[in-house]
Predict the structure.
Amino acid sequence: MSAENWQIVVFFFLIASLYSSVGFGGGSSYISILAFYGLPFTFVRSVALICNIVVVSNSTVQYWRNGLLNLKKIIPLVLLSVPLAFIGGKIPLKEKSFFILLGVTLLIASLLMWFQPKTSSNGEKRKLSDQKQFIFDLLVGGFIGFVSGMVGIGGGIFLSPLLYILKWDEAKKISAVSTVFILVNSVSGLIGQNNLSIFETNKYFVLALVLAVFVGGFLGNYLTILKLKQDTVRKATALLIAYVSVNLLMKYLG
């Protein structure tokens, strides 16, 4: 464990603390940090998904205990996303292609997060017939799952703002479904990558990162981070993601 590695561990702890407060796993920012430090992109993809799983597992349990998980509404979103995240994780990308794709997707995610409207728990919901709603959720979930599997994120940063824009449901329930979406797609994408050999060559580093996000995620859910305004956290995260995406695109398209 070098001094540089310990810096990454601290960043992961802070990211998990912030993201868990709004129902995300932090995958996009984990990738950004690892990419900036020049780690191999195969390592980047897998570690981001592992840390996602650790953070959102606890959040999922809390949402379940509070009765915010509606399986009837969640199933259409994950029905296609899980197998497509697996397929996306199986796609062999070259390093340049991976980082260009990552840059584009993160830029889109940052825009969605920045322009995500504020909604109250009593906000008006979008109304569609049951059949149209099912097809819509199926297609949206499948597409986001596929892209997420390729770039190594859970997809919550795409799904959540999109559902807010479309007035899919109440704010708390959108956060809950996004958390489950991240969890199942992160697991599926990680299995598709089949790259757990990273534990063999970097086991102490990976374990340190996992411990950091576990503690950070726990604190984000239960302690002082809950006092932060979600809109402030979201916009700060959007700016960070936009900065990273632009730098990645400039580097790999130049």
Notes: The first helix runs from residue 3 to 20. The radius of gyration is 17 Å. The chain is about 75% helix and 0% strand.
